[in-house]
Amino acid sequence: MKIFFGNGSGTKFGKIVAMDRFDSGRSLSPIQQAEAYWTALLPGDGVPMRSQIDPRGLENILPNTFILERIAPGLARFRLAGSHLNTLAGMEVRGMPLTAFFEPSARTQVNEILEQVFAGPAIAELELASTGGFGRTDLQARMILLPLKSELGDVSRVLGVMVSVGAIGATPRRFDVSHHKLRAVSEIQAPQQPVQPVVEGFAEEQQEFKRPGFHLRLVVSRDK
Q1: Which of 20, 17, 18, 40 shows the shortest CA–CA distance to 28?
Q2: Alpha helices in the chain (DSSP H)
Q3: pTM
Q4: How far apart are CA 224 and CA 161, in angstroms?
Q5: How many helices (H) and strands (E) does the chain have?
Q6: Strand positions, DSSP E, 19-136
């Protein structure tokens, strides 16, 4: 399955970043590759635009990559999804909510995490676990959610990556959240250089340095 991340409106891409600038991305996990790509698009304030996401910059990890669209507070559905996610679900996931990958007991927590990603905006990293059973073994997975702006300028899209380790077995696989971490986007943007304060009582007025000179005085001697 091929994925094209263009917006379909003919709008030109803004800043295109190729993954080969990150050492071809081959030494990084898909999670790290996605964050490095997203960070390279990060403006001085706010988050990247959805239209900036170019599949050429993510070709190494397209099977694990997806795009979400916010449809209600805490709810988002798949606009695009790579083949790995379809394999985990045992079906085409486009149009389905993100919570379809989670056990019912975990869905409220996932909704809350999603809302913080949009509202923060923030980056979310999730460690996931799927319990084994008939025809399948325990399965571990990781997911990252990176906020994006829509063409309207609101934070209502997500660039995500999901990676599982181990045999998938019988599908669909649904997960619980073992651990999650949220990081505010403002914390990873380039900080401004702080201005060094002047401490009163210790600041000295700077005076122009003058080289000392030699002064000659004429002495008149009158001999009688």
Answers
A1: 20
A2: 30-40, 83-89, 107-119
A3: 0.75
A4: 109
A5: 3, 6
A6: 65-72, 75-81, 122-130
